[in-house]
Amino acid sequence: MVSDPIAQRAAIALALTLAGTATCRVPVALAAQSARAVSGDLFAANISGDDISYYDGRTGAAKGPFVARRSGGLFRPTGLAFGPDGDLYVSSSGNGRVLRYDGTSGAFLGVAVDDGELERPFSVAFGPGGRLYVSSLDRVLRYDARSGTFLGVAAEADGLRQPIGLAFGPDGTLYVANSAGGNVMRFDPTTGASLGVFASDSLRFPSDVAFGPDGALHVSSAAGAAVVRFDEDGSFDGYAARLPGGSAPVGIAFDAAGRLLIADFAGGRLFAAGQDGAAELVASEGLRGPENIAVRP
Q1: How far apart are CA 258 and CA 284, in angstroms?
Q2: What is the pLDDT along the chain (297 residues), one digit of tens a residue?
């Protein structure tokens, strides 16, 4: 249970957003620019802006909207990932689709997934064989990214409730941020069978998972204003980052330099943390409820 009033409000607001019931005022969008992404650029899915913003990976300078508001029918974007083909795949939670955009220009290339299995998609990730994995309501689904063909359930269990972030571990298994369950669960991505709870210590509304350069699993604790680190057996290994009070860290990613990058949903900010765990503000311009982030390879 979340006891701190500020953290509680952030958790409730985030939960409502995930359920598709939150309403947000959207500021005037940034002036359109000619998008051209390069390696190392940082991207953010803005659920309240219905767009994807991007930033210089070194300086944090805003480069403008990469995917324009509602481009290709984008509605309440929540997750994004670059595919093996270099294109950007974005979960459009408001209309139950995954959309595909040119990874350099941001141009809309078509609908990647639109079928009856997908419900309120949140995060997207690429796994073995270049297959696309999407967290969907209380399951994780697997697709052929190019054809959009449904390939089966990659994660399903009685204890899995409102899964969000996805990551593949060194062992090839799928790690899932089980937000409403308050833990991280592990699954066989081929059969969808649960391998049990991997970690739960110090997690308050876990929202994303990412493996760091040191091999440790990092988990954003949205209602705890922190990113928690776990060792290979799921034991608590300290805080990788602590954010200012009232923050709600959701999406996390690592850049080529090994910096931990964090999207603060509540504050509309991006932070970076080094090995000492100190969080430094990277960007805020153009951010409107950033849910997830990705670094262009």
Answers
A1: 21
A2: 444 544 554 554 565 455 454 434 333 333 344 689 999 999 999 999 999 999 999 999 999 999 999 999 999 999 999 999 999 999 999 999 999 999 999 999 999 999 999 999 999 999 999 999 999 999 999 999 999 999 999 999 999 999 999 999 999 999 999 999 999 999 999 999 999 999 999 999 999 999 999 999 999 999 999 999 999 999 999 999 999 999 999 999 999 999 999 999 999 999 999 888 899 999 999 999 999 999 999
Angstrom distance (rounded) from CA 238 to CA 216: 11
Contact by Cβ (8 Å): 293, 259: no
* Distance of alpha carbon 279 from alpha carbon 169, whole angstroms: 25
Q: What is the DSSP letter of 240?
A: E
Contact yes or no for 242/279 (Cβ under 8 A): yes
- How far is it, in rounded angstroms, from Cα 28 to Cα 226? 30
User: CB atoms < 10 A from the CB of 131, how many?
Assistant: 18
Angle at 190 between CA 184 and CA 196, to 5 degrees: 30
Q: Vertex 240, ends 54 and 15: CA angle to 5°?
A: 65
Residue pair 261/271 in contact by the 8 Å Cβ criterion: yes
> In 3D, which of 57, 58, 77 has the Cα closest to residue 67?
77
Q: Are 185 and 209 in contact (CB under 8 A)?
A: no
Q: 91: number of CA atoms within 13 Å, CB side?
A: 31
Strand order in the sheet with 97-101: 77-82, 88-92, 97-101, 108-113
| CB proximity list for 171: less than 8 A, separation 6 or greater | none
Please give the structure tokens belonging to residue 153.
């359930």
